[in-house]
Amino acid sequence: MAVARPLLPKKTSISEDYNLTNHVLGLGINGKVVECVNKKTNEKCALKVLQDTPKARREVDLHYRSCACPQIVQIRDVFENMLSGKRCLLVVMECMSGGELFNRIQERADSAFNEREAAQIVRSIATAISYLHNINIAHRDLKPENLLYTSSGPDGALKLTDFGFAKEVGVNKSLQTPCYTPYYVAPEVLGQEKYDKSCDLWSLGVITYILLCGYPPFYSNHGAPISPGMKQRIRDGQYDFPTAEWATSRRTLKILLDDC
Q1: Phi, psi dihedrals of residue 137, rounded to the nearest 5°
Q2: Is 197 annotated in some ligand binding site?
Q3: Which reactions appear under catalytic activity for this entry (predicted)?
Q4: Cα 173 vs. chain centroid, distance in angstroms?
Q5: Residue 3: is its pLDDT beyond 50?
Q6: pTM (two decimals)
């Protein structure tokens, strides 16, 4: 397994190496992701700006260390610059022009992915998660919005991004903070006990379920992001296959979810 280089942000101005644009590629909890262009190679890249804090440093460091895996969005450069009087980390990544897996699920709402298509997607995600777990990193926010395609065509590769909830684990390091997105959270994360990186496998099982039918196995009946009833169903593993579309694939998926 390749050993990642230590993260050493460049102190020079990003404008020396990249032309910045106003083309917004995406929106996240930390703000816009905009397009920039490498002056030497003319490669279009994605620029994410984070206020320079210990949490942001951890996020960028874990993402950077994971880039030896081709199923993870690649970081091209990291700059430490002052913007509007604040020290910021400017993270330049490969441009994922194919959009989110979430969008493709929405587009296929009336005709969910068949098992072969779902298997290819799950294989890509599982490869990324396996790599992270082998270097003792838990992602903790595995969801379709954080899975991006390199292009919009059928040959576009699917890659994992957004390490904002990621954390290093190990023999002397465990997880206890309840970081999660409601639909995909593992039952142990909702409790008070410590948990480990296997929480990502539950999220993968939920994504698999959604791919095959178009809706999540756990949801709030009242429209809220999460409710007491939804939390209880997640803790108890109470999910169902309520429609005829599960007739041929529910046994395989049940085995996967039970194993998670």
Answers
A1: -120, 130
A2: no
A3: L-seryl-[protein] + ATP = O-phospho-L-seryl-[protein] + ADP + H(+); L-threonyl-[protein] + ATP = O-phospho-L-threonyl-[protein] + ADP + H(+)
A4: 22
A5: no
A6: 0.88
Q: Is 141 noted as a catalytic residue in this protein? A: yes
CA-CA-CA-CA torsion for 132, 133, 137, 139, nearest 10 degrees?
A: 70
- Average pLDDT across the chain, whole number: 87
Dihedral sign, Cα of residue 54, residue 57, residue 61, residue 67: positive
Q: Which of 101, 187, 180 is nearest to 138 (CA)?
A: 180
Residue type, 32: K
Q: How far apart are CA 177 and CA 190, in angstroms?
A: 9
| Run of H or E including 86 | strand 86-94
pLDDT tens digits, one per residue of 187-237: 888 877 788 899 999 999 999 999 988 888 888 777 767 788 888 888 888
Active-site residue (options: 52, 77, 141, 240): 141
Q: Structure tokens of 38?
A: 């490498």
Name the percent of the chain lying above pLDDT 70.
85
Q: Which domains does the chain have, with CATH numbers?
A: 15-94 (3.30.200.20), 99-259 (1.10.510.10)
27's enclosing H/E stretch is strand 18-28
